[in-house]
Design a protein that fits this description.
518 residues, eleven-stranded mixed beta sheet, eight-stranded antiparallel beta sheet, 12% helix
Length: 518
């Protein structure tokens, strides 16, 4: 989860955590218990943002590095557009317990309803898995492939596609680069910032320099792991590529299929001590459309690890590796592979604070004889397992309650006079509970950044919950502002809780958190 996503999520959770436990347990003074919990619950957003490097705070919730400690059998579902796709492939590779994974096109939601399709009845697969391990039914659940994935084909990019074309594939087991690797080398072109991806290392030295702009990225997805509206996917990213170095291969003579995480090894120098690399892999169609396939982000101060960040030395070239999110994709013959390099991804990540420029070096150098390159993990040429017969008729589940949705909002506004780009979102709706209770929840965010002053960014948030249940009306409102300057983040928050129209609990927060090379 990235810094801006983390902050939005944390503000929302402040509201969620403030709701009472209704209906009350028999004999419980639910109001006293509710107030006690409100007073004791910390504001998570403060320690989340304060812990800006890897360490004990984050390790307590991580499998790494002791994957072998998992002894129970594992069945995983992953989506190519879900921010949690990489753990699926890490666990397949590193865990020793019996394990299987099924990966589709989906965003951060369930495979029976998530976009893009095709969809499948994932509950059916879970029942078979648990019947095998818990009831000892010999139903063949663990005879099926270790990895089944949907290999995506090109489709014109859109924010909310119903489905993507492609085909299901299967392998007995997954290993990194099971089909080998394809390496493409970065080289310069006839036009500035427009280079090539070549099958052979560049023989001539070259460099592409570009300015850090905080507001680049609004043609991409609204979040790192999309979900229901307004959290859409990337559209044609050519608008984001203006002013950035873009390297494009020749048209492919035959299809090229990738599976797993690609890696961009780049020789980079920076005029800034704190800077970010955003690398996007795209499928460039014959008409020039640039459709995002995958993406990777690296805070360059973390180039040697995430525990002890180190500032960049201005002007000194360094070789860095940017891991891209796992992908299962087939580039068609006649299409071209594209790689763009930027320094921001607004509003997904908080902008690096300094003004300046970055340079991507190509060709042989003292750091690395081959120079900057893209390494693609290839899918096996042929499947060594059969694709399971999934149920595609979705389960007939009981209808519980009902509800309505607010009209979602996803707007990008450029203020020419102020020099800012603001992304505004709204998501909300009411759920009718089985017992007749009602829960309304909504959140709105406005995120503003400036190319002229990248250190100064701002997010204002309004979160509201209204719970009507057991004859009571509970209202929870959270108003928050997260802002930054060159030295720190500032969080200002006001939590207000009302019971039946009367004030029940209030809490304010005003914290300044130093930036640690972020």
């Amino acid at each position: 989860m990235t810094a801006s996503e983390l902050t939005q999520y944390a503000v929302s959770q402040v509201g969620t955590n403030a709701l009472p436990a209704l209906p009350a347990r028999p004999g419980e003074d639910w109001q006293a218990a509710w107030r006690e919990r409100l007073e004791a619950t910390p504001i998570w957003m403060v320690p989340w943002l304060a812990n800006q490097v890897d360490g004990p705070y984050w390790r307590q919730g991580s499998l790494a590095p002791a994957y072998e400690e998992i002894e129970a059998a594992i069945l995983m579902f992953g989506g190519w557009m879900d921010s949690y796709i990489d753990p699926v492939f890490r666990m397949l590779d590193r865990c020793t317990a019996p394990r299987r994974a099924i990966v589709g096109n989906w965003v951060h939601t369930f495979p029976d309803e998530g976009y893009p399709g095709p969809n499948l009845d994932w509950l059916h697969e879970f029942v078979r898995f648990f019947d095998f391990w818990l009831k000892e039914e010999q139903n063949g659940a663990m005879d099926e492939p270790g990895l089944t994935w949907f290999q995506r084909d090109y489709a014109a990019p859109e924010a909310f596609p119903v489905g993507w074309p492609g085909s299901w594939r299967a392998a007995r087991a997954y290993g990194p680069s099971a089909g080998g690797n394809a390496t493409f080398w970065l080289s310069g072109g006839e036009q500035s910032l427009r280079g090539a991806l070549d099958a052979q290392p560049a023989t001539a030295w070259g460099a592409e320099t570009f300015a850090h702009r905080a507001t680049v990225g609004t043609s991409g997805g609204l979040s790192w792991g999309a979900g229901s509206a307004p959290n859409g996917l990337a559209r044609d990213i050519r608008r984001d590529e203006v002013g950035l170095p873009v390297f494009i291969s020749r048209p492919l003579d035959e299809p090229l299929a990738v599976l797993g995480p690609a890696v961009a090894t780049l020789e980079v120098s920076s005029s800034m001590t704190v800077a970010t690399l955003v690398v996007r892999l795209s499928d460039v169609a014959p008409d020039g459309t640039s459709s995002q396939v995958s993406m990777g982000i690296l805070n360059l101060t973390h180039r040697n690890g995430h525990t002890k960040p180190e500032p960049m030395v201005p002007g000194r070239p360094e070789l860095v590796r940017v891991a891209l999110r796992s992908a299962g994709y087939r580039f068609a013959a006649g299409h071209r592979i594209g790689l763009s390099v930027g320094s921001s991804l607004w509003p997904v990540i908080w902008p690096s604070p300094e003004s300046g420029s970055l340079t991507i070096h190509q060709g042989p150098s003292a750091l690395d004889r081959g120079g900057s390159r893209l390494e693609l993990p290839l899918a096996p040429a042929d499947d060594d397992a059969e694709v399971p017969s999934f149920l595609t008729t979705l389960p007939d589940l009981d209808e519980v309650g009902g509800g309505r949705d607010d009209s979602p909002r996803w707007q990008v506004t450029e203020d020419v006079l102020a020099g800012t780009t603001t992304v505004s979102t709204h998501d909300g709706g009411e759920t009718v509970l089985e017992d007749g209770g009602r829960l309304y929840s909504a959140e709105s965010h406005d995120l503003a950044a400036s190319d002229q002053a990248p250190a100064v960014a701002n997010m204002t948030s309004a979160v509201r919950y209204v719970l009507e249940r057991d004859g009571h009306r509970v209202e929870v409102d959270v108003d928050a502002t997260t802002s930054s300057d060159a030295g720190a983040f500032r969080m200002v928050m006001d939590l207000r809780v009302r019971l039946d129209g009367d004030a029940f609990f209030d809490r304010g927060l005003d914290e300044r958190i130093p930036r640690r090379l972020v």
